[in-house]
Design goal:
The protein is mainly β. The protein has one domain: Immunoglobulin-like (Sandwich), CATH 2.60.40. It has 1 helix and 14 strands; from the N terminus they run αββββββββββββββ. A hairpin with a 5-residue loop joins β13 and β14.
Amino acid sequence: MSAAAVVAVMALGVSACGGATSQDSSEKASSYPVEITKVSFPPRQDLAQPTFFTIVVRNSGEQSIPNIAVTILNADTKTQGVAEAFGYSTQQDGVADRSRPLFVIDQQPTAGQTAYVNTWAMGELAPGASQTFTWKVTATRAGVFAIKYQVAPDLNGRAKAKLADGGAAQGTVTVRVLKAAPNTTVGPDGEVIRSHKPPQ
């Protein structure tokens, strides 16, 4: 199965039952309250410059979450279809795999890999406990991009993660990747200073 096809299975699982091929079909349909306590991704980045995308999820309910998971999607509606995490779906004809990277993943959440190319799961999360998901990524294209994240309590989509207001545990971050290489100087304390302003 191609990478895009695997993601398509996951995308369907977000809103419906994952079916017999789900990684964990034993999970029950229910709702789990969560709090997204941190979302960090620099809104202004440089092409080919590594950065970190971090999401921290807290179990705000009274029962353990079976398998806390985060899915990363491209929120840009101009590129239809599904893609790998931090990627987009090309509209070019005649290609077997439409997934193309916006950001290359250099490092991913430890022990969080699943069968899906855009989803990571970190196991059971006790009441009151928090789980951190961190990706080290490098931008491959210049432009303005919207990255969508969705939190789930399992991998098959039968159970749902809900915020305190009853809404879905998801959100979007927008990042501008600059094409021009930044000017780099060293400050008095040895700190590296990066700026896109013309040097004086």
